[in-house]
Design goal:
By secondary structure, the protein is α+β, with helices and mostly antiparallel strands. It has two domains: 112 residues, Winged helix-like DNA-binding domain superfamily/Winged helix DNA-binding domain (Arc Repressor Mutant, subunit A), CATH 1.10.10.10; 83 residues, Winged helix-like DNA-binding domain superfamily/Winged helix DNA-binding domain (Arc Repressor Mutant, subunit A, Orthogonal Bundle), CATH 1.10.10. The chain is 36% helix and 19% strand. A hairpin with a 7-residue loop joins strand 7 and strand 8.
């Protein structure tokens, strides 16, 4: 069977059979859907546009080679609404690094049976409290976190770093140049946030006065889990 390609509009391509009048409609949103379905990670709008523009060959010219970011963004919103209206078992999720197809959470009890790996241990209350302080006041020193919590956080901080939720962001320009800590990209993904501005009550908690460590000279801080610097 031979197929003739005819461009109906920028966002719609009709593939019509040479033998009969049957046809299928290819739209920009369907191309975007195919990319999201095949991707192993979230795709940003620029990544989607690049993939669309790079496609095409002699047998099937690329009718969407001039796709713009605004049109791809509109196609994503169209798909998102479509999945909701049709009550599909999956949904379109916007993450910090892009868009991704994912199972609707209400089907989790069944989907979970396909992945019987042991669940990771939950974070303790002290770890969650420490993580919250870092998230809202980052970058922040260990001493300042301890000033808020009133206890030593060495073990908790090490756990958060091993889980990939917190990382070293540099050193503070104060005596002793202690390490600064901040949350990671995985932190955003783990809690379903696109950015830190989506933290609950973020502006109020960022403005609230919290205890800070006393500014006294201290030895240079070493990286958690490593021996202290000498000299």
């Amino acid at each position: 069977m031979q197929w003739n390609l005819r461009n109906e509009s920028f966002n719609c391509v009709v593939l019509r059979s040479a033998q009969d009048d049957t046809h299928c409609v290819m739209t920009l949103s369907r191309v975007v859907e195919a990319l999201l379905f095949s991707a192993q990670k979230p795709l940003s709008i620029p990544e989607i546009v690049m993939a669309i523009k790079s496609a095409g060959d002699e047998d099937l010219p690329n009718e969407f080679s001039h796709a713009r970011q605004a049109e791809v963004a509109a196609a994503l919103e169209q798909l998102k609404i479509e999945y909701i209206e049709q009550e599909r078992a999956f949904q379109l999720i916007e993450k910090a690094e892009g868009w991704q197809l994912g199972t609707d959470p209400k089907y989790a009890p069944w989907v979970r049976e396909l992945f019987p790996a042991p669940k990771p241990a939950r974070l303790s209350a002290p770890a969650l409290e420490t993580l919250a302080i870092i998230a809202y006041r980052q970058p922040i020193t260990r001493a300042d976190v301890e000033a808020v919590r009133g206890v030593n956080i060495d073990g908790v901080l090490q756990t958060l770093m091993e889980r990939g939720l917190v990382k070293i962001a540099g050193r503070a320009e104060i005596p002793g140049r202690p390490l600064l800590y901040e949350t990671t990209q995985f932190f955003l993904d783990h809690f379903g946030l696109r950015n830190l501005d989506e933290l609950p009550n973020v502006e109020e908690l960022r403005r609230r006065d919290l205890p800070v460590a006393r500014s006294t000279p201290a030895p240079s801080e070493s990286t958690p889990g490593s021996p202290a610097n000498s000299g």
